[in-house]
Amino acid sequence: MVVTLFALVLLYNWINTGDYRPLFPNMPESEKSEAFDLLSGSAFPARLDSRTGDILVPADRYYEARMMLASSGFADPSSAQSMNMLDDQSSLTSSQFMEEARYRAATENELAKSIVQISSIKTARVHLAAPRQSSYVRNRVPAKASVVVVGHPGRIVTQAHVQSITSLVSSSVPYLAVEDVSVVDQQGNLLTMSMSPGLKMADMQSTYKRSIESDYKARIEQLLAPIVGIENVNSDVDASIDFSEFETTSEVFDEAGRGPISRSEVLSVDRSRGGSNVGGIPGAQSNIAPNDTAINNTNDEAIDPIEQPSLQTSEPTSTRTTRNYELDRSIKYSKDAVGNITRLSIAVVINQKVLDGVAGEDVDGEETPRIGALNVEQLTELVKSSVGFDEARGDQVLVIGSPFMEATVIEEITTPWFENSSIQFIAQMIGIVIAFALTLLFVVRPVLANMLKKNDGPSS
Question: 18, 111, 117, 345: which could join 126 in a potential S-S bond, CB 3.0 to 4.6 Å?
């Protein structure tokens, strides 16, 4: 009888040790006590883990427990409270310090909720150090922030995610610069290590180079996959990219070679007309009228004004020409594009069996050529056309055939039959039935037999 009772106790403990999972990991002790009291008051089978102290609930009733706590007004501690906490906790007797502390806590919770929306972030906590700002600009103290992130298992918090987090936090808090935001992961690694502008530029250039190479690699493999099969081709691309930045300003004169062009011309002519004007040296002789010989003289020789003071046959003329010439002039401003590809080196390896046209077996078991023998030169020209091969640029494309190693077949890991949850449930039911039968046979039956014997003894 004692052995039977001991077996029943062991069976009960075995049945109650089903699959349990933590309800809320890393829950504060005060909230843990409240949640456990709510579950116990509702007769829910919850218990405490002796090692971690977490609340454990049956795995198949996990969401039922969460819904039960939510209906009782208990919120998930991992979901940060929002700005509504300011309305719930506001009071006329609250000091300014408490109001600022609540506002800061609400801002931290809102930022944490926004950061958790990133696919690779599981949980996040934000700590803000925002001192009270002065009315004078020179006395203002910059704010600072710290963010602790926990990534999902199997996912990586990339540098792009870190930059997004720092930009999000700095844009949400006044007087908070991006460089004053620190991001730390669950291992204590500082993800926002300060980098010089040169290193940041080098990192961006390296990322751009890898993206270009990946694009060409995918283009080549997508082109050759329908011909040889995706498992029979492998490629590698190395791109030389010029990240030099040039700005050129040039001034060109007479680019068409037409020479100087007259822009404007001004012609000025001054003439003084007169016949037999009185002239000569002032005096009595200058007032004497000229004789007929002097008037009819048609000789071009100059006449001395002293001898003939009254003869004036000259006609003074003044001519001025002003021309302005201009040359054809053009000013050009050019800025070269950054990230130009200066050289491509491409290597493609194709399975030699495919190049040789190895025969395969069809449905009827007859050997038929799976693919015809391929010409390496044709494949090379095909690859050159797909990547925009430029011989003047120094591009190189190499296509070779080589035997590929056979892929190792990984055997599927099967779960033992006795670890199947369905079989374990059936075994538990069978154990309950057997325990009930043993209880009736070895406990209830002897007790009833003794009671019957005691009752039959006095009567006899």
Answer: 111
Question: Can you tell me the distance from the alpha carbon of 381 to that of 384, in angstroms, rounded to the nearest whole number?
Answer: 5
CATH code for the domain defined by 84-135+142-194: 3.30.300.30
**Of residues 145 and 35, more confidently modeled:** 145
| Architecture of the 2-71 domain | 2-Layer Sandwich (3.30)
Domains 2-71 and 217-244+338-402 share a fold: no
Query: For the segment 58-114, what is each residue's pLDDT rounded down to a tens digit?
Result: 888 888 888 888 777 676 555 545 545 555 555 666 677 778 888 888 889 899 989
- List the CATH code of the domain at 217-244+338-402: 3.30.300
Where do the structural domains in the chain lie, given as residue ranges?
2-71, 84-135+142-194, 217-244+338-402, 247-264+322-336, 417-459
387 to 64, 338, 384, 400: CA distances (angstroms) = 57, 20, 6, 17
Task: Please say whether the beta carbons of 351 and 405 come within 8 A.
Answer: no
Residue pLDDT, tens place only, 365-384: 544 444 445 678 888 999 99
